[in-house]
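Notebook, p. 212. Picked up where the previous page left off. The plan for this session was modest: take the two constructs that came back from the sequencing core last week, fold each one, and keep the raw output in the notebook itself so nobody has to go hunting through shared drives later. Recording the first one now, exactly as returned: residue sequence, then the structure token string.
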Amino acid sequence: MAAGELLPGQVLPPMRELAAELGVNPNTVAAAYRTLRERGVIETAGRRGSRVRPKPATTGREHIRVDVPDGVRDMSNGNPDPALLPSLAKAFAEAAEQADREPVLYGDAPMEPELARIARAELNADGVPDGPLAVASGSLDAIERVLAAHLKPGDSVALEDPGWGSLLDLVPALGLRTVPVGVDDEGPLPDDVRRALAAGARALIVTDRAQNPTGAAVSATRARALRSVLREHPETLLIEDDHGHGIVDLPLRPLAGEARTWAFVRSVAKGYGPDLRLGVLTGDAVTVDRVRGRQRLGPGWVSRITQRAVLRLWADGTLDSPAVAAAYRERRDLLIEALAERGVEAHGRSGLNVWIPVPDETGAVARLLHAGWAVAPGARFRMSAPPGIRVTVSTLTVEEAGPLADAIASAVGPAPVRSYV
């Protein structure tokens, strides 16, 4: 396989047949096949035998991007507005001064006690079930650790489609299978989730708010429907991602109360800045204990200096700023309304991005680039969902909304008949 002599999708010989050809015990071949399965190199489909996995270990969606030439306005990067991020200097200076007085040493607690107290109080206020806490290096790190704590290569994970490109890369990189679940403005579609879980998906990952790329946010009605589905499949590992905390003015509708095995992660990347690399994780006792145990054997802990700096910002109420959430909402609405006036369908209920269904992604991206606008191709975020483009509006100005909408309308034409689900 490494030499390319066996190609993706190619069927491998039956174990007994290969054992006879090689002159070895069939148990030896069975052990080799099992190792290859565990490493995500091959897959087995019952009587249909084993075959080389049809996809590489990682799909490299980050490489599906647009190179932005000089003079082109970049609306593709998914970043928050730097002008809306808080100043970190004072918070880190105070955290460093505390570290001089009270240095954190090997064997000390991995989580800042006051950060745990404030995080738990806010989670309680949002209806997230009680559970132990841990700190990870952002949402993706937490999700990876939770998946590794419960699943084995070959297991299936139900993922939003369209959904976060990094997550769509991570799951196959862990040797797991992806099962697409459609999304509309109110979150994952209950019937799609039901089908995925009934077909054997072991885990479901839901973005509660500011879904990337569509801006979906789980509504109260949708949350009730999804909880009903989860009650039908109590063995499901539920992972909820609330990376939109602090930049969204829609209430959280957590699902975790319906799952025995669950994790909920709240990161500060969008509200405080991506470089902080910090997310607070809670979940059932077994899940969090496994995550903490594996973390101890790797990085050990997330820097307590960083935790203390975040704590100062969090305690000051900086993360939950209505003005920041309002600014992002106004920018989304500016573009969505301008596109509606031009007959173009667009979605962006929350967060930093607007998702626009298009009949031809490649052509739309190329025409917009020629017109001076760089947007993200939907292929970075899709599995089986129809084509689309993602526009990051975090820095969009009032003066730019009309010209950008004109360029998009010219590039994509009227809205296609199908939406993005």
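Okay, moving on. Second construct, recorded in the same format:
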Amino acid sequence: MPEGPAPVPVTQRLRVRYAKRGRLRFTSHRDISRAVERAVRRAGIPVAYSAGFTPHPKISYAGAAATGVASEAEYLEIGLTDTRDPAWVRTALDEALPGGLDIVDVVAARTGSSIADRLEASEWTIRLDGVATGAAAEATGTFMAAAEVEVERLTRKGLRRFDARSAVCACKVEACDPDRRGMDETAVPCVILRMVVRHTTPAVRPDDVLAGLRQVADFAPQSPPLVTRLAQGPLNAGTGELTDPLDPDRETEPTGGAAIAGNGLASMPVGVVSADVVSAQP
């Protein structure tokens, strides 16, 4: 055992929702964790440390998005040695982080359950340039109508085969906003696939869904996809609605939980595909 006094115990746990935007989507999870640790020290937040010869700040992450994926709903938990106002922590930490890593919400943990246990599903958007709405809708309909769509992915344990269809609760095809694309005579078409995907083992990622679309419908866009996670949270199996995972920790719990999808998928029954054409910002 190392010599010296024992580390100061945790007196408060804060749960933080943050966003990964713009060029920061290409930052690895390890670099993000380093940036958060530096920002915590810079902001003067009294973070607790683990015991042992190499103490580490007590900051844990849940359901982190992959490198290259933007997100509006990433979560972490910080253990503090002294009580702080969550609003102050939100402001101080946001100011200390680089642009593109933005603090969205901070609440004090008031329940014993882990934040990771509440992240049952994610809502994603996949922007595809050079794709017509009709082609995307037809391919998506074929995928959703399939009972099973097996795809392969190389993992640390080698090549793994799994069903990508069963994890997709709902899927919707939207047209990109012409104003956002600078619409002119030479503008290429653009669509957005918006979907709710359950968290399973192994995890089904947006690129797995694209692999499934290529397999069952020969749908293979030439442009690289632009993927963004809009929300994570508890999933209502009947409606496909995601709720805010931080709601149970708030002082006043809203009845039924506040929906965080807010995009039209919340009202879609699980397993339904929609090809409605609406405006959507990439």
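Notes on construct two before I forget. Confidence is low (pLDDT under 50) at residues 253-257, 266-282.
Flagging for discussion at group meeting.
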